[in-house]
Amino acid sequence: MDKKQANSKSCLQPVPKVIVSCRGKNGEDNALAVAYCCNCSYDPPMVMVGIVPSRHSYSMIKDSGCFVVNLVSKDYSEIFNYLGSHSGRDENKLAKMNVKTAEALKINAPILLDCPVNIECKVVDSIVTGSHEMFVGKVEYVHADAQLVNDKGNIDFSAVNFIS
Predict the structure, then answer these.
(1) Burial of 78 (0-12, 13-18, 19+ CB in 10 A)
(2) Is 127 helix (H, G, I), strand (E, B) or coil?
(3) Is the distance from CB of 116 to CB of 160 less than 8 angstroms?
(4) What is the bridge-based pairing of β-strands 18-23 and 37-42?
(5) Per residue in 2-31, pLDDT tens?
(6) Sequence ranges of the domains in the chain
(7) CATH: 2.40.50.100, 3.40.50.150, 1.10.580.10, 2.30.110.10. Which one for 18-159?
(8) pLDDT (tens digit, 9 = 90+) per residue, 37-65?
(9) What global pTM score does this model have?
(10) Over the stretch 81-91, which tens digit does the pLDDT of each residue have?
(11) Which of 17, 44, 106, 150 would staple 141 via disulfide (CB 3.0–4.6 Å)?
């Protein structure tokens, strides 16, 4: 097989598109599209998200010590693209896009109700990896659309039409 050098910027794609939601000390809610997100432990369950320090949500997560990972389906593409291309410094993006939110159960941050899965996380560590700070979040609670959850509590991810 013939091989060719490829771009190393995002060499572990595809991964599910996610929106990270958070709340600032002043009670302001915000959300941003995040390219770097993955599981990093199953016992205890933890996920990791990479946020560029210049992003508006960065200081909110640093200050609050928590965030929500919201998995995104294709029917949420317009909102995903908007949240990923506009800054919360300039406007209330959630209000502008009429994003439905609810209070998380275990942390002080909003969940995005129209996303099929919402993962509440408490920051337990972080590491600067160059362009991003990787926040390690211990999973405190997982919300999932009822039709996705089987009788053992497992999520059927194949039933979600993820953005590719």
Answers:
(1) exposed
(2) strand
(3) yes
(4) unpaired
(5) 886 766 665 565 677 899 999 999 999 999
(6) 18-159
(7) 2.30.110.10
(8) 999 999 999 999 999 999 999 999 999 99
(9) 0.92
(10) 999 999 999 99
(11) 106
